[in-house]
Each structure stands twice: as C-alpha cells, then as structure tokens.
Design goal:
heterodimer; A: about 375 residues; alpha/beta; 2 domains; three-stranded antiparallel beta sheet; about 40% helix; B: about 600 residues; globular
Chain lengths: ~375, ~600
C-alpha cells in the first residue's frame, strides 16, 4: 500500500439480537435508538464527506470492510443502499471488499446485492458448531445454517473467511478441534480463531462472576491455542497473524491495521487512524445523526500520535504478524534502527526467548506467541 | 502585665472529645479571632492534622480576658498533641502550664489517653478543671461522667463545668474558672533566665523559632542566650507572643509564654524540653525533664524510581528542619536499592511523614515494614542495637536478644474484657492489673512487646471492642525474648527488605501467612516462582506462584488499537511500580504485606 492508499471501515451497529459476550457498539434491531433508514442516511453523508476529502487528496481506497454489528441484519435494500453509497462516493481502486455476514441473516437477495456491488470477500461468524453453546452464547444460528452460509458464500465470493471462537464456556479442546476439522472440511481458506474475551459489562461477565458459567482455565486455553496451530499448520494453513490462518488469502484490510497504516472508520463509534491522529467517532446515535445532518464529521475524540508512540505501535502491531516487523521497513519509515530505539526491551525479550531477530525481522518466538501481551507491554512507554 | 494576672493552661482531651472546638470558642469569646473570618479549629494548622482530626504540632495563643472581678487577665492557651506517639511533647507543654482543662465527652466518658494525660498533668502539679463537653448530645450522660471523674481521677464531680463547645454554652464559665482556679505563675523576674522550650517550628526565612515559657528571669532582644543542653549561644533577634499570629514584644518575663528567634538554623537547636538561659548570667541548672526524643519505630523509605533518591534526601532534610524527632540515614537494600532508614516516635508519626513525602513532595515510595529497635548481645560480648531486621547478626553469633516492652493501659466496656484479654494474650502480653472504673467500664493494664503494638494492635483492639476500647502506653525498657529472624526467599534469593523478627512461637504461622500473602500479591511471571520463609537455613513455609501461561488477546483491529494500547499502558504502569529483585518483579505492597498478617 502506498501513501496514496487507505483502508476504509464502515460500521453497521445493528444485530438481530445481542450475543451474551458482545461488547461492541451494536443494538438489537427491535430496540435500536434509530431505525436503520435514519442511520443509513447519516452514514451515507459521512461516506460522502470522507470520499470528498480522500478525492481532494488523491487518496484511493485499497481495502473496504463493512462490519458491525451484523451488516446482514439490514434488509437487502438497506444493505444495497450502503453498498451503493460506497460505490458512488469513495474513490475505490479495485479494493479488497469484505462484508461480515452472519449465518441466519443471509438471503439470496443480500448476496446478489453484494456481488453486484463488487464485494469480493465474506467473513462469516461461525464461532462454534455446537448447538447448545451457540444457544448459550445467544447466537442466532445453528450449525447447519453456518455450513449453508459458508457454501453459499464460497460460490458467490472469491474469498471467504470463517471466524471460530475458542475458550468458550464448557468447550473442551476436543470440541474446538472438531469445529476446526469441520471448517477445514468445508474448504475454508481463511480462518480466524479467537479466544473468548469476557468483557466487563456484558451479560456473560455477570454470569461468570456469579459462578453460573465456568470458563476453561488458563491451561485449557493454552491447549486450545496450541492445538489450533498444531491442527492447521500441517493442513497447509499459514499462521500469518496471532489469530489468523490462511491458504493464500491474507486479509489485506487487517494487514493495514497490523502494519500501522492509515484507515478511515465510518459510522457510529468507528475509529480512524489518519494523518498521525487516532480519531473516534461519537458513540451516541443522536449526536451522530445530528452531526451529519449539519454536514460535520461526528468525531468525538482525537489523539495526536507522537513519533515515539507511532514507533511503539508499529512494533506491537507488527509483532502480531508471524513474519514480525521488518527492520528495513521500520528504518525506512522512521530513519532509525529499531534495535537501537528499543535496545533494552529487545535485549530482555531475546534473553527470555520470547522474541527472535532473524533474516531482517523481529518476531515472536513460538514460546512468545501465547505470552504476546507481556512482550507488547515491554514496548510501551507511559 | 502583673504576673498575678497571667494564667498558663492547656487542654487535655481524647481525640474527638472536642478540644479544638473548645479552643476555637475561647479564642472567639476573648476576641482573639472574630467568628466570621475564622476557619474552624484554628489551632490545628497542618492540613494533615485537619484531615485526621488530631493535633500533631503544638500551638500556643495569648488571650485577653476581662474577668468578672473587673481585672484584665492574660491567658496563655497551649495546645497539646493528641496521640500516644507524642507523649513526651505533651509532658513538656504541660510543664509550661499551671493548669489544665480536662475535656471529657459526656457521651463517651473517660478514655485511656485522657487518663494517661491526666496522670502527666498531676505529675506536673497542674490544677485540673474538668469540663464535661457535648452536654447537648442525645447520648450525654452527665451524672455518670461526673461519677467517673470522682472514681477514676479523684476529682469531685461538683467541680466539673458543663459545656457544649459546639453550641457555645458554658464558655464564659470556663474562662472564669481558668482565672479563679488556676494559680498565677510563680517564678521570679529577678532570677537568672530559665525558659522552657515546649515547641518549635522552622521558618525558611528566620530559622528555628522556639516556643517558650519563661519560668524565671527575663529575656530581651539583643541579648546573648545559651541553650543549656548543647551550650551553644545565639543572639536574640526577635521576641514576641502569639495572638495567635506572632506579634513582636521585644521582651518576655517570668510567667509569660512567647517565641524566641535567635538565628538558630533548625529545630535540632531548639529541642523540646530544653532550657534557654542567658550567656552572661546563666542559670545554674537546666529545668528538669529534658530528654532527647528517641525514635521507637524504624522503617526504610525507598524511592520507586531510583532517580528520586536525591529528591527524597532533600525532602527528609526539609522535614527534619521542623521535626527533630525524625531521624534518617542512608540505607542500601539489595532488593530496593538506595533509600533511607528512618526513625519515628511511633506508627502515626511514620504515617504522617510518609504521607507528607508523597503529598507535599510528590515522591512515590516503597515503605518497608516498621521495626522496633532490638538489643542484641553477641557472643563475643558486644551489644548492638538493631533497627533493621536485615542487619541482625547470624543466630550462631547471638547470645541474647532483648526487645522493648511497654506498659499498656486499655479502657474498655466490660462486655469486651474477654476479647481484649484474648488479644493481649495473642500479642504476648503479661497481665498486670484490672480495675473497674464504674459499673460498666474496665481499665486493664498489660505489659506488651512494643513490636506487637506497632503492627495492627490498635486496629484489632478497635475491631474486637466494636470501637469502644482505647489505648495508651508508656515505655518500660528492654526485656529478653525468644526472637528469631524470618527470611523470605523469592525464587531462591533472600529478599532483605522482607525479613522480619518475630517470636519463636509465631515464626511458623507468620512465615506461612506471609508467603501466602506474597503469592497473592506478586503477579505471575513466565516461570514458576517459589516463595519460602526460612529461619536460618530451615525452610518453614513454602508457596509457589505458577508461571504465566497465556495472556495474548487474539483480537486486534481498528477500534481495538486504542483500547489495547490503554490496556498495555495499564499493565506497564503496574510494572513500573514494581521492584525487580533478581529475575522477579515485586509490587510495592509486598514490602508492607508483613503488616497485614497477625
């Protein structure tokens, strides 16, 4: 990606229902603070404002990602409106264009709208293939629907990714392996495996705190993390980021984040990294709608990223990649050798065998992978 | 002013019984301050004192009062600190007075601390005027309070004045009683000067300012004076009285209370209890009762950031200018690096200094567990005083260890006698005496090791008596005890700053509790960390902190980056406050953990 390119994320804050573990900014359709039509009107305005800005700077959109929430919770015509706004206003340069889809909300009409607009990648939230756990988590689909959704997407889009969750309540390592086996069997060429993070304020957090739901212990979590690697690597998946595995279909959009490159976040609560600023849109629907009705970008927070911070971010995001951080890329970007900037930190972590520095890259060791937060924290100055 | 028309007095009271409020009212009634522009509790000036509701530094104020006999009187009110750590300071301010107001909360009755101070006042031959305060409270029991006065202190309840300082009732009766019952000062103007230093403070422009009571003779500006304990001489540059602001008078004579400025560079030149005389015609003997305040409790202060060492030294030096009882000397700990071993009058004094260092000087400190001073006789015959467990000689070299004991006075409602006695037994106390103060309250006397008292004794006493028991103590001296040093080994390395000295019988239990506590406090690291407690080479307790296995957050996209960074910053900030000991990172609170085990 060149300086004249950017990634764009578009947020759809609607879901058929809230999952028990979800702490994303999203509303169940039945009780949202604004109907999708009103939101899409404002969203279209924001897409327009960003498009105009990007065009004036001659910056092209190289990846576009529509996520949520559940974009496919919108009706086919609503979804079509969002897609059309992207086509009309954003300076697209044959982008990788992903839409998050959830089994149970997918219809042939929605698929058709997406294909027609130019969407070329679907990311499916399969999560688990155990019916009971899907119910417990509050997911709105069953295992059969998940497979069905995958097959439909595989036929419609050149690239399809599957999200799988690990460390779920009651989940045994063997259960995870079964799910992985099934997903591999479908022919998925991109799989993301996330450990469940129980965020404060979610219903699941309360259940866990009250001891009504038990999570796998740390040892089991580690086993699942390791098992994922050991299951997928021999099956020719490349482990290219902490949670991401692929057969030749790396997600270019996510690489933008991990390479600490600029992106525009459009929609309620969306974040942008733009001209050395981390921006966050308002999380309040009313403010969002009002702002755009007045043709103003709904930015609520703005943080200027210092050079030091940018270097730190480049390292901690880059280390997520299995390749690690390229010494020459870093030197090209900052005119400094990262081994000098972070000499003490790197020395310590090399000694602990959590990092290795080889072939022009600084990367996590296999030992360092599951302890990545310990490594990242070392690089933070605060 | 005629000596006959001077009255010097102080107020004795338990915390919260209303001493400061009464003082405010007296100031108001005599016009020393007008009610409107007066902050409440003027005599408690330190911010910390206000917060804690206690008086630490003494203050004095001169009041003018026209009595019912038509004469103008000069009343010097000398405030006293209200905490057991400062007993010596109290005794010196009492020595500067002829009388004392004994303030008792009508709802609470007499407390241990009040009694201790009454005894001090009686030793100094003070005329005591009982004042029953808070008579307007719903729980006030005036009759019972009077009865306690008679039975416990031997003062007729009929003499007691009934006051509500808060409401302002009975204030004039108090002033009249001060004039009528307290004798005027007796010393003669004609004798050589003897001025008692009962307090001092440091002023950055004028140096140490001594608060004095002229017992005999007189003093005037320009005179050369001599401090009797050190023999050092100074020339008086300013003399005056407190109104309550310092007001220059040029001279002070027998019976008066005021201040002396004489180019003394810090408060170590003006130690409390010392005597000032004139250089030319000096008094033959100093006033009785002077002793240098000796620290009872020691602990180490280490800057969290080693770069703050000099800043910590500067701050301690500044505090020391105003606090002669504070001692400090450089200390090096293998675990904590460079810091200072500091001595304090007691735990409250320690906490005050610690808070002031952090609050006023912005320092972040690691404080090690407090220790008393042990007297160690070595087999080769030498006697050592050890204020730092890390420095205790090897057991094989020790002939005997003695520890300081105190006589503790505890007053408790009868229903908690059992619980209080149990507590004293647990803390190695020897029972001395028990006395019923009235039908419901009991005074218990125990001899206890000071080391047991400075930890959590007071908190435990309060919790086991539902807050009703009160405590006071005085030092008895050293006694032999079966003491051992318990070392704590983390990952096989002894951490000097975690060593503690304890009685043989409790070594095992305390070792086990502390290792258990440390297991909770020390965050998991990338390897198993054994934590052991050992006496000599014998391991008496062991715990293991299991290695950290997985802490990766798998998800990180656009919106997560800021959140994740904040999370890592928090993680890192926590780490910054830790001390690296060998390969293990230990949080600050670990060094205080020994305090929270019983």
């Amino acid at each position: 990606m060149t300086e004249k390119e950017i990634s764009v994320y578009i947020h759809i804050p609607y879901c058929p229902a809230k999952c028990l573990y979800c702490d994303f900014l999203s509303f169940p359709l039945c009780s949202a603070p604004a109907v999708p039509a009103a939101y899409i009107k404002a969203l279209t305005r924001e897409i327009f404002l960003w498009g105009r800005k990007l065009e004036s700077l001659d910056i092209r959109v190289s990846t576009l990602y529509i996520g949520g929430g559940t974009p496919t919770a919108l009706s086919a015509s609503e979804l079509s409106e969002v897609l059309a706004a992207c086509r009309r206003y954003l300076p697209l340069a044959e982008p990788e264009w992903t839409v998050e889809v959830n089994p149970g909300t997918l219809t042939p009409e929605k698929i058709e709208e997406m294909v027609k607009a130019g969407v070329n990648r679907a990311s499916i939230g399969v999560q688990d293939l155990n019916e009971e756990r899907l119910v417990l988590l509050g997911r709105q689909h069953n295992p059969a629907q998940a497979e069905e959704a995958f097959l439909v997407c595989r036929d419609a889009f050149p690239a399809v990714s599957v999200d799988v969750m690990a460390a779920l309540p009651g989940q045994e390592p063997a259960d995870l392996q079964e799910t992985l086996a099934a997903v591999c069997g479908w022919g998925a060429r991109h799989i993301s495996v996330y450990g469940l993070a129980v965020a404060e304020g979610t219903p699941l957090f309360k259940l866990v705190k009250e001891d009504r739901v038990a999570l796998p212990d740390e040892e089991a979590q580690l086993e699942m993390f390791t098992l994922t690697r050991e299951y997928l690597l021999p099956r020719n998946y490349e482990h290219y980021e902490i949670a991401s595995y692929t057969k030749g279909q790396h997600c270019r959009h996510n690489l933008t984040y991990w390479k600490n490159l600029p992106y525009a976040g459009i929609g309620l609560g969306a974040h942008s990294y733009w001209q050395k600023m981390r921006l966050a849109n308002t999380r309040q629907m009313e403010v969002y709608l009002q702002s755009l009705a007045e043709d103003r970008l709904p930015v609520a927070e703005c943080h200027n990223v210092s050079r030091r911070e940018e270097m730190e971010d480049t390292i901690i995001l880059g280390l997520r990649l299995r390749d690690g951080v390229s010494l020459s890329d870093f030197a090209g970007r900052f005119k400094r050798d990262l081994r000098e900037v972070f000499a003490a930190e790197i020395k310590r972590l090399l000694e602990l065998q959590l990092l290795e520095c080889r072939d022009g890259f600084l990367r996590l060791t296999d030992k360092g992978l599951p302890l990545a937060n310990t490594v990242f924290a070392e690089f933070i100055s605060c | 002013m005629l000596q006959q028309q001077i009255r010097n007095f102080c107020i004795i009271a338990h915390i919260d019984h209303g001493k400061s409020t009464l003082a405010d009212r007296l100031l108001e009634a005599t016009g020393a301050l007008s009610g409107r522009d007066m902050a409440p509790q003027v005599l408690d000036q330190l911010e910390l004192e206000r917060e804690r509701g206690i008086t630490i530094k003494l203050q004095a104020v001169r009041l003018h009062y026209r009595a019912q006999d038509g004469k103008e009187y000069l009343l010097n009110l000398i405030d006293t600190p209200g905490h057991v750590d400062f007993t010596y300071e109290v005794s010196r301010s009492l020595a500067a007075c002829e009388g004392a107001l004994l303030v008792i909360d009508a709802a609470q009755g007499i407390e241990a601390q009040t009694m201790a101070n009454v005894y001090l006042a009686l030793e100094n031959n003070l005329e005591i005027i009982p004042v029953i305060n808070k008579i307007d409270l719903p729980g006030a029991d005036i009759e019972n309070t009077k009865k306690q006065l008679e039975e416990v202190i031997g003062i007729s309840g009929e003499e007691a004045l009934l006051v509500s300082a808060k409401a302002g009732t009975g204030i004039n009766d108090v002033l009249e009683a001060v004039v009528r019952r307290i004798p005027p000062p007796a010393g003669s103007d004609a004798l050589p000067l003897r001025a008692l230093i009962f307090d001092s403070h440091y002023d950055s422009y004028r140096g140490a300012i001594a608060y004095v009571r002229i017992m005999e003779g007189q003093i005037s500006e320009g005179q050369e004076i001599k401090i009797m304990s050190s023999g050092k001489t100074f020339t008086v540059s300013e003399l005056g009285v407190f109104t309550p602001q310092m007001t220059q008078t040029g001279r002070l004579s027998a019976g008066e209370v005021g201040y002396v400025i004489a180019g003394m560079k810090d408060v170590k030149e003006t130690r409390i209890g010392d005597t000032i005389t004139t250089a030319r015609n000096p008094a033959r003997e100093a006033l009785p009762g002077y002793r240098r305040a000796t620290p009872m409790v020691y602990c180490g202060f280490f800057p969290t950031d080693n770069g703050d060492y000099e800043a910590l030294r500067d701050a301690l030096e500044k505090l020391n200018l105003n606090d002669a009882a504070l001692t400090f000397e450089p200390e090096t700990s293998e675990a904590l690096g460079f810091g200072f071993r500091c001595g304090f009058l007691g735990l409250l004094h320690l906490e005050i200094i610690q808070e002031r260092l952090e609050r006023e000087y912005g320092l972040s400190l690691v404080t090690t567990a407090p220790s008393v001073v042990y007297k160690v006789e070595q087999k080769e015959g030498q006697t050592l005083f050890i204020d730092n467990p890390a420095r205790l000689p090897k057991a094989a070299d020790i002939a005997a260890i003695e520890e300081p004991f105190v006589k503790a006075f505890i007053i408790t409602p009868g229903e908690y006698i059992g619980a209080v006695m149990e507590l004293c037994r647990e803390k190695r106390g020897n029972y001395v005496n028990m006395e019923y103060l009235d039908t419901s309250r009991v005074s218990l006397t125990y001899e206890l090791p000071l080391a047991e008292i400075i930890f959590d004794f007071f908190d435990l006493l309060k919790s086991r008596s539902r807050g009703y028991a009160s405590l006071d103590y005085e030092l008895l001296g050293y006694r032999a005890s079966k003491l051992v040093k318990v070392d704590i080994l983390i990952n096989g390395e002894a951490v000097d700053a975690l060593s503690f000295i304890t009685h043989e019988d409790s070594a095992y239990r305390r070792g086990r509790e502390l290792t258990g506590k440390l297991r909770e406090i020390i965050p998991r690291q990338m390897f198993d960390i054994p934590i052991q407690a050992a006496v000599g080479s014998r391991v008496i307790a062991r715990e293991t902190i299991k290695a950290l296995r997985k802490n990766v957050l798998e998800k990180c996209y656009g919106g997560d980056i800021t959140r994740k960074r904040k999370l890592l910053e928090k993680q890192k900030a926590g780490k910054k406050r830790m001390k690296q000991v060998g390969s293990v990172e230990i949080p600050q609170e670990a060094f205080m953990a020994v305090l929270s085990i019983d």
